[in-house]
Amino acid sequence: SNLMPDKWICSYNPDRRHNTCSAAEEDWGNLEQGYEFVYSKYNLGSLVWCKMQGYPWWPGMIDNDPLTRTFYYKHANSQLPDKYHVTFFGIQATRAWIGKKIH
């Protein structure tokens, strides 16, 4: 028998701290000083397809930028990355910061 209902809604959660859909899934308010939590769709090493103007969709990998030593860029007040650093596959490796056109 299936223990989970076919349709799950937040109020089914027996934990009162998390049984509303507006409740945070995790409490990230107690991170050590100098650290921050970022909701990232991609991780370091993720394989992706990207589109740059004037080029076809091309495969690549999320990789650290050699100058910034990070793989995402975000605005200071945001928890969501605006761009990811991608190393494209090919005979000669090329790199770029890619925004929305990434899958």
Can you describe what's shown?
The chain is mainly β and 103 residues long. The chain has no helices and 5 strands. Strands 1, 2, 3, 4 and 5 form a 5-stranded antiparallel sheet that branches. It is elongated.
What layout of secondary structure does this protein have?
Layout: E1 47-50, E2 58-62, E3 72-73, E4 83-88, E5 94-98
Antiparallel strand pairs: 1-2, 2-4, 3-4, 4-5
Radius of gyration: 19 Å
Helix/strand class? mainly beta
Total DSSP E strands: 5
Low-confidence spans: none
End-to-end gap: 36 Å
What's the SSE pattern?
Answer: EEEEE
Mean pLDDT: 84
Query: What is the approximate shape?
Result: elongated
- The portion of residues forming beta strands comes to 15-25%
Instruction: Supply the number of helical segments.
Output: 0
Helix content: under 10%
> What profile does the largest beta sheet have?
5 strands, antiparallel
Kindly summarize this structure in a few lines.
This protein has 103 residues and is mainly β. Helix content is 0%, strand content 21%. A hairpin with a 5-residue loop joins strand 4 and strand 5.
Keywords:
103 residues, five-stranded antiparallel β-sheet, single chain, mainly beta
